[in-house]
UniProtKB/TrEMBL annotation:
<keyword id="KW-0285">Flavoprotein</keyword>
<protein>
    <recommendedName>
        <fullName>Probable malate:quinone oxidoreductase</fullName>
        <ecNumber>1.1.5.4</ecNumber>
    </recommendedName>
</protein>
<dbReference type="GO" id="GO:0006099">
    <property type="term" value="P:tricarboxylic acid cycle"/>
</dbReference>
<comment type="similarity">
    <text>Belongs to the MQO family.</text>
</comment>
<keyword id="KW-0816">Tricarboxylic acid cycle</keyword>
<dbReference type="Pfam" id="PF06039">
    <property type="entry name" value="Mqo"/>
</dbReference>
<dbReference type="GO" id="GO:0008924">
    <property type="term" value="F:L-malate dehydrogenase (quinone) activity"/>
</dbReference>
<keyword id="KW-0812">Transmembrane</keyword>
<dbReference type="GO" id="GO:0047545">
    <property type="term" value="F:(S)-2-hydroxyglutarate dehydrogenase activity"/>
</dbReference>
<keyword id="KW-0274">FAD</keyword>
<keyword id="KW-0472">Membrane</keyword>
<dbReference type="InterPro" id="IPR006231">
    <property type="entry name" value="MQO"/>
</dbReference>
<comment type="pathway">
    <text>Carbohydrate metabolism; tricarboxylic acid cycle; oxaloacetate from (S)-malate (quinone route): step 1/1.</text>
</comment>
<keyword id="KW-0560">Oxidoreductase</keyword>
<keyword id="KW-1133">Transmembrane helix</keyword>
<feature type="transmembrane region" description="Helical">
    <location>
        <begin position="12"/>
        <end position="31"/>
    </location>
</feature>
<dbReference type="InterPro" id="IPR036188">
    <property type="entry name" value="FAD/NAD-bd_sf"/>
</dbReference>
């Protein structure tokens, strides 16, 4: 590895040991196998924050069951455009995972995706009417042609018995079901992808915290990292990186701010924590095999849509219900109580204040959620599972989410999706936000490649298209005029 003034130079530094960095590492190590890559994770293991299997619901978000991806227009019609986009993006993830598994690049991770039907369940005449209109709108699109709808409690009981057992037969109910849904262990996927890129030459540094980012006068970045191991004596080292990606979850905002790039100015974050009820009782688990999403309460953020999920983690199966929203000033589950305070800058003070004033209903909702008793949480579960018993369920803490605040109408807007922030010269990029990030990680990283490597992406298109056949449209389809034979792809690598 070349050095200058005893400081090594690498092609790529990836900050954060979660699914985003793992995905980008898998792509770049295939596209440019001679590039040097370093991955830095501040914790003592990979996927310990949002990518950890028990810190998220594991839904392979394909918009098959999530009502918040199909909003109702003012005229009462259903807008499916976001659902179509998310479904297409998730398909890219599935294709990349299949490609890696087929090329021995996903050791032990090929079982991380389990077929699990995705369902939407609603109660009451209004809910039934809304779900029927959603079903009609989605079913007309080829991506959702296998979606099923039922208002028959007996048929819904065959799909998911726990939903209707001991329920009032006079209450109207409806459900949609897609047998093609998935449950995903993103933690296992992260480990598998990183293991593969390390085997191909990448360097993984655990308990390695990036503390400073400075532009290098020669181009690229000087990245200062601190050794957090007990015997590291707080030693620091500096690495010259030609490209830096900040995939540090809730820690990404502060690092982007430290970089000083103008594109990061005006961004803030609003942290939301969560909890789930979980059961491993084999009798209860055996009676439910699906991910079932319901309707969010008025004023609730999209990430708080209630859902009852089959989870397959480390070969074991469990059920998880939630999330119950909470609030913490931490930006990471294992972060600092000062994270929110430290993120405030003159450039984002106005957007953060404006968002706070315009989202008092969200604050009210969070206060109510934080003060809800255990009995109140269990009542919410029983709306999904009338036969649920407290003795079967335990409360677990989920990962920390940081919703994006940025400049916008009225001073600032609160975003519930993900936001890719990149420098104008493409030398650094970071990812902010939450759901459906993990499921659409591949599409986001392809976007990053186009933004940050414009001089390379034309040469990469044939390989990317071989890895992800459904990647297309516009320039991608034009690139198919190139030779995509196996010999050409091998030569490209």
């Amino acid at each position: 590895m070349p050095t200058t003034d005893r400081e090594p130079t690498v092609d790529v530094v990836l900050i954060g040991g979660g699914i985003m960095s793992a995905t980008l590492a898998a792509l770049l190590s295939t596209l440019e196998p001679t590039w040097t890559i370093e991955i830095h994770e501040r914790r003592d293991g990979l996927a310990q924050e949002s990518s950890n299997a028990w810190n998220n619901a594991g839904t392979g978000h394909a918009a098959l069951c999530e009502l918040n991806y199909t909003p109702q227009r003012e005229d009462g019609s259903i807008d499916i455009s976001k659902a179509v986009t998310i479904n297409e993006q998730y398909e890219l993830s599935r294709e990349l995972w299949d490609y890696l598994a087929g090329h021995d690049r996903l050791p032990g991770g090929s079982t991380s995706v389990s077929t699990t039907p995705h369902m939407t369940f609603v109660r009451g005449a209004d809910g039934v009417d809304h779900l029927r209109r959603r079903f009609d709108a989605l079913r007309a699109h080829p991506l959702f042609s296998d979606l099923e709808l039922s208002t028959d409690p007996d048929e819904i009981a065959r799909w998911a018995p726990l939903l209707v057992a001991d329920r009032d037969p006079a209450e109207p109910v409806a459900a949609t079901r897609s047998a093609a849904g998935t449950d995903v262990d993103f933690g296992a996927l992260t480990h598998a992808m990183v293991d593969a890129v390390v085997a191909r030459g990448a360097d993984l540094h655990l308990e390695s915290e990036v503390t400073r980012l400075r532009r290098d006068r020669r181009g690229g970045w000087r990245v200062t990292v601190r050794d957090r191991r007990w015997n590291g004596r707080s030693r620091s080292r500096t690495v010259h990186a030609r490209f830096v990606f900040i995939g540090a979850g809730g820690g990404a905002l502060r690092l982007l701010q430290k970089s000083g790039i103008p594109e990061a100015k005006g961004y803030g974050g609003f942290p939301i924590s969560g909890q789930f009820l979980r059961t491993t009782n084999p009798d209860v688990v055996a009676a439910h095999h699906a991910k079932v999403y319901g309707r969010a309460e008025i004023g609730a953020p999209p990430m708080s849509v209630p859902h009852l999920d089959t989870r397959v983690v480390d070969g074991g199966t469990a059920l998880m219900f939630g999330p119950y929203a909470g609030w913490s000033m931490k930006f990471l589950k294992h972060g600092s109580w000062l994270d929110l305070v430290r993120s405030v800058r003159p450039g984002n003070l106005v957007p953060m204040a404006a968002v706070g004033l315009r989202n008092l209903d969200l604050l009210t909702y969070l206060i109510r959620e934080v003060t809800t008793s255990s009995e109140g949480r269990f009542r919410a579960l029983r709306q999904f599972v009338p036969t649920a018993r407290p003795a079967d369920w335990e409360l677990i803490t989920a990962g920390q989410r940081v919703q994006v605040i940025k400049r916008g109408p009225g001073g600032g807007v609160l975003e519930f999706g993900t936001e890719l922030v990149s420098a104008a010269d493409g030398s650094i990029a970071g990812l902010l936000g939450a759901s459906p990030g993990a499921s659409t990680a591949v599409a986001t990283m392809v976007d990053l490649l186009e933004r940050c490597f414009p001089g390379k992406v034309d040469d990469w298109r044939p390989v990317l298209r071989q890895m992800m056949p459904s990647l297309g449209g516009g320039e991608w389809d034009e690139a198919m005029e190139l030779d995509l034979s196996d010999d050409a792809v091998s030569a490209q690598r």
